[in-house]
Amino acid sequence: MEHHPMSFKCLIFIFLVYYSTYLTALSLKIPRLSPIAGFATTLRDRGSLAATLDTQNLTTFYYKQVLDHFNYRPESYETFQQRYLINFKYWGGAKCSAPIFVYLGAESPIDDSPQGVGFLTDNAASFNALLVYIEHRYYGKSVPFGSREEAFKNASTIGYFNSAQAIADYAEVIIHVKKKLHAKKSPVIVIGGSYGGMLASWFRLKYPHLAIGALASSAPILYFDNITPQDGYFSVVSRDFKEASETCSQTISKSWSEIDRVASQPNGLSILSQRFNTCRPLNKSSELKDYLVLMYAGAAQYGGPPRYPATVICGGIDNSSFGSDILSKIYSGLVAYQGNDTCKVNDPPIVSETDEGWRWQTCSEMVEPIGIVNNSMFEPYPFIFKSFAKECKERYGVSPRPHWITTYYGGHNIKWVLQKFGSNIIFSNGLRDPYSSGGVLKNISDTIVAVHTVKGSHCLDIAGALETDPIWLVEQRKKEVDIIKGWITQYYVALNGASKF
After folding, report:
1. Fewer CB within 10 A of the end CB, N or C, for the chain?
2. How is the beta sheet containing 100-104 ordered, strand by strand?
3. Is 235 among the residues known to form the active site?
4. CA torsion angle 200 297 9 166 (round to 10)
5. CB neighbour class for 180 (10 Å; exposed up to 12, middle 13-18, buried from 19)
6. Alpha helix positions (H), 159-209
């Protein structure tokens, strides 16, 4: 799955290395949000020269951040060091009130974001913009309580880990940066992808006095509280594969029962382990099926140019070089996608800080009811909240709050609500991205706009530009840049008008 200039090593989520992370009803593994594809065979050495050079222009800072923005108990006043990065290279300076682009970090360390999210560096020069990248609390080096072990020790210490606290953190850092740089009048644009895109849109709604606009790339803000049907995600995955090849989709659909049939035979699991070149012997057929489900989901989610992974997998399945039976075809698709130089399925689980963090986030507030029902190329596996909540309770001692996101940020009747008070948000999506099913795909107002592409994938628009980019992707980014320029122009007009009084 070749992607755009996001060469950094497996940022935020490696679909199949980290799949032990996903905690949902029973055993179904649900793809985590992430602006960047992390599949190990796909992104190496893809960084643009400009992005690589700009990593040399970054300066690291730390802000003494308060632990709890919303309470006044003595422990609320504890602090931790929150990391943020600044690229001064392109900035026109405070005297010119030059703009500030702020990238809101999501569920991973911030280290590789400047190189991976090339949209900022690609456009900074034309805006004379300062680039700021803020790390999300509890990730990377922005960890309270002195260490990750202490921070994740129990629900009392990890309970300060949520999106409301995170965007309040961002607000404090932005105020601090503008004060230190004497940039009181510099307009701020916040940018984020996936979960970070949700944060960007919510930041604009909650802190309109601090950011004049937001670019929310692939932000499924409507995948909460049953606004979007639970099968939205996997319906898009199935559609992507059917569009790539209907015979391929049919083969995948037939493969699940065939895997179970072989597994039920004497030495069946050993046969499957050999046929699929597993890293460890399979203990049950679901280990193989879970792996394949996430592989297909990842291929769809990051299914953009130049490689179009669903097409690659289907090419392997339809033109099987390992045999004509169903399992040989499925293995051929796997090899076409990943190569044939290493073991693939059932490798030893690696639990990263991102895994730990996202487990907590999904077990507290980020409850996306993603399930599989009928009418797809997958076996039915509906999301059952009671089962999900039971697992979360056993793990953390707390129950998920499935209605909190829509209570705090909204989501229901979004057009009717936001067209009355919201403004200056771009919701961008690629319709081949399964998470677009929970995104905003229609304009809400003249200033809250939806920009989408039929062939686009997850957060493709905020990836760095390549000379080989198709025209529709170039035009999508240009449209977003033009909208942001319009916001800034309007801001300067208002600023100049205000200065006369």
Report:
1. C
2. 58-66, 79-87, 130-134, 100-104, 188-193, 213-217, 425-430, 448-453
3. no
4. 20
5. exposed
6. 163-180, 195-206
Catalytic residue among 108, 194, 238, 332: 194
What is the mean pLDDT of each successive set of 10 residues along the chain, which is 501 residues long?
35 33 41 58 36 74 98 97 98 97 96 93 98 98 96 96 98 98 98 98 98 98 97 97 98 98 97 95 96 96 92 98 96 94 80 90 96 91 95 95 98 95 97 97 97 96 94 98 98 83 45
Structure tokens given for 56: 């040399």
What pLDDT, on the 0 to 100 scale, is given for residue 340?
A: 83
DSSP secondary structure code for residue 431 in this structure: T
For position 19, what pLDDT does the model report?
Answer: 34
* The pLDDT value given to residue 143: 97
* Residue of 216, 118, 194 whose CA lies nearest to 467: 118
What is the pLDDT at residue 354?
87
Sign of the dihedral defined by the CA atoms of residues 280, 238, 254, 373, in that order: positive
Pairing mode of beta strands 130-134, 100-104: parallel
Chain-centroid distance of CA 376 in Å reads 23
Instruction: State how far the Cα of 272 lies from the Cα of 441, in Å rounded to an integer.
Output: 42
Q: What pLDDT score does 63 carry? A: 98
Whether residue 7 lies in the annotated active site: no
User: With a threshold of 0.90, does the pTM exceed it?
Assistant: yes
Dihedral of alpha carbons 315, 316, 321, 324, sign: negative
Tell me the two tokens of residue 437.
């099913």
Q: How many Å is the maximal CA-CA distance in the chain? A: 86
The catalytic position among 290, 433, 461, 469 is 433
3-class DSSP assignment, residue 220: coil
Torsion on CA atoms 97, 101, 102, 105, rounded to nearest 10: -170
Q: How many residues does the chain have?
A: 501
Report pLDDT for 56.
80
Report the SS3 class of residue 223: coil
Structural tokens at position 402: 């499935």
- Which secondary-structure segment (H or E) carries 216? strand 213-217
Structure tokens at 102: 């702020």
Question: The tokens of 422 are what?
Answer: 């919201």
- Burial of residue 202 (CB within 10 Å: 0-12, 13-18, 19+) is buried
Helical (H) or strand (E) element with 119: helix 118-127
Tell me the C-alpha distance between 48 and 66, whole Å: 37
Q: Is-catalytic flag, 433?
A: yes
